[in-house]
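User: Hey, quick favor. My workstation is busy. Could you predict this chain's structure for me?
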Amino acid sequence: MASSGGLEDSYKVTPTLTLEYGLRYEWNGTPAEGGHRFVTFNPSTSAFQQVNQPYKQNNNYEPRLGFIYDVSGKGKTTIRGGFGYLVDQPIISVVTGLASNPPFSNPLQTTGAPIGTAFASAGASGLNPSSVNPNFKNGYIESYNLNVQQELGPASALQVGYIGSQGRHLRLNHNINQRVYASPTTATFTLPYPTAKMLDGSVRPLGNITDNDSIGMSNYNALWVTYRRSLRGGLQFNTTYTYAKSMDENSQSGNGIQDNTNPAGSYGLSDFDVRHHFVFSGTWTLPFHGNRLKDGWLIADVTQIQGGNPLNVVTGSIYSGASGNIRPTLLVRPSTGVHKALSNFSIPYIVGTSCLTATQGCNFLTPTLGYGSMQRNGLTGPGFSDTDVSLQKTTKIAESVNFILRMDAFDVFNQANFGNPVLTASPTSTTFGTITATRGAIGDAGSSRQLQFAAKVQF
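Assistant: No problem, here it is.
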């Protein structure tokens, strides 16, 4: 449950300077379970406990401040800036795992055992419970921007701006029962929480413990330039270039934490980071007139070119609860880029080798027990480019009735946009660093050329 309210106003300080300000209040209630089946693991007591509220509800005050400054007073040069404090309401999945903890959900593990001993066998099996930090806080973002817009004549404008944000108390799930080894060279390990006391007083062994916490952080900074122009003959275009960098500890749906005792050690580029992004869009109303066949033709184009997303190189590990997230140590940076294909379905991208001991010519060192020092998302994948073109014909049938025929060509040049390579580096791998597929057709991922036809009557 949540409630909110806010106030906003503007004040004209001078004829050329306007301030805009406001304050928003939000109260986000703690999610509740109708059957009172929330059971959480309490690390301070190594015991399960039934709770009515996994964490406390809280009050949030979110100020906003912005300004608009007309430098000349004639609308030729305008400077805008703003700051906002934005609070995120926790999603329900923060607490849904608590309803699956015992005793309301009890895993049963048995192989070929008589039914009469099945539940005794289940009592000896390990649990992988969920937990929520009782001091869980709502995540927030401090967002700020500044931009300058300059008119370059009656039909064109240039805009240059900066936008940035920093997120704090972001949701971060991590395993608080990851194995702790005695030393980097000894296979002897302990578990921080080997057992837990149940609600009925019995003791059960524990496996991984997924702790929902609010200790994540992020940063985003971007510089963007936009140029708009209208030309004679019905031609208009808009171009935008963005230079940006996004960093966090865990992009939540992607690469996870390597060392769960040190989440800050996984601070690196966000999984969705893109350094360079260019977009061109334009329309051209064709200057043909005279009859219904000539009138109403329109051509539109959208072209985008961007750099690659980060690549997170991982390696094998015996660390329980960190599978797929252990990174090697980077000895020598490998060569990256689309190289000559080994076959029709295998293209080298990361040209480098992995080893168990530091040897000459080796790029990645796979740790025997400890963690590798390579930064999360330390390499960059293949870029992306795409051009979409539309041709539209509008024919007037009556005074207020038009017939519109449209053809769209997506990825009209059928450009090859490659997917990410295999990222598991091991001394025995024969596929590491190779690309085996193109990008899928989701979002900006691109696809092969596709044609689409549509017709409609507008009235």
